[in-house]
Amino acid sequence: MTFDTDAANRALAGLRPFPVAITTVNGGFANGLMSLSAGSASIIPEAPRATISLTKYNKTHDMVLESGIFVMHMLSAEDDQIEKSLEILMTLGGSSGRDGDKISKLRTKTGVTGAPILLDAHSYVEARVTGSLDVQESTIFVGDVVGAEILHDGGRLRIGEAWSKLPQDWIEQYDANHEPQLANARARRFGSTV
Ligand SMILES: Cc1cc2nc3c(=O)[nH]c(=O)nc-3n(C[C@H](O)[C@H](O)[C@H](O)COP(=O)(O)O)c2cc1C
User: Domain Flavin reductase like: where (predicted)?
Assistant: First the structure.
């Protein structure tokens, strides 16, 4: 790269401070992951849209691509909910659905799309994909919201607070899991020799 990538990364850091739990269902199998890519993608208040960016390495990516549905959950920062929030984050962000069912470890109900709604989340929007953009290592999905609910009032969990409260051994495992994901992304972006 011929520019200052550190400056770019500092400029871009922290733009999306809320970790969200994404769930979906495809062919009868429910799954999900954590994401820091969530955003609103709407201008029309009566027709809300949401956007997420998923890495192709992750099983949830292929499932959303095939099923065309996702649920985006905000997590709660309130004292009586934060343990549940961290449990969701560690369950969905700590391993892959390729290695086994994660969703049955969490309290859920079924949404209008058939995808699981996490009952211990702060709130959610449920969406049907209306467009997607393939960007080599990831796909950016935009969905029309078809369901929404506030499940617990109060503040939403920010990623800084989450990292400060997550157990050190979980963070170390997450960092180790991140390496093959990063290698896969680099291979897709620059070619398999890099
Ligand atoms: C805080 C946090 C943010 C993450 N952000 C993203 C993201 O934006 N996109 C993504 O594809 N994965 C993201 N991940 C990684 C996935 O959650 C993780 O790789 C997960 O185990 C994938 O599960 P799956 O293979 O069942 O889909 C994030 C993980 C954490 C803990």
Answer: 15-159
Whether residue 132 is contained in a domain is answered as yes
3-class DSSP string for 11-34: HHCCCCCCCEEEEEEECCEEEEEE
Examine the pLDDT at 161 and tell me if it is beyond 80.
Answer: yes
**Which domain range does residue 65 map to?**
14-190
In a domain, 108, yes or no: yes
Determine, yes or no, domain membership for 90. yes
Residue 18 is part of a domain; what is its CATH number? 2.30.110.10
Cα dihedral 38→90→157→52 (10° resolution): 0
Nearest CA to ligand 1 atom 20: 93
Mean pLDDT of all residues in 33-40: 97
Strands 123-135 and 138-150, bridge-based pairing: antiparallel
| Position 6 in a domain | no
Residue 194 clears pLDDT 90, i.e. is over it: no
> And the tokens for 110?
């079924």
Which atom of ligand 1 has the smallest separation from the CA of 102? Answer: 26
Q: How many domains is the chain built from?
A: 1
Q: Is residue 98 within 6 Å of ligand 1 at its C-beta?
A: yes
Across 106-134, average pLDDT: 98
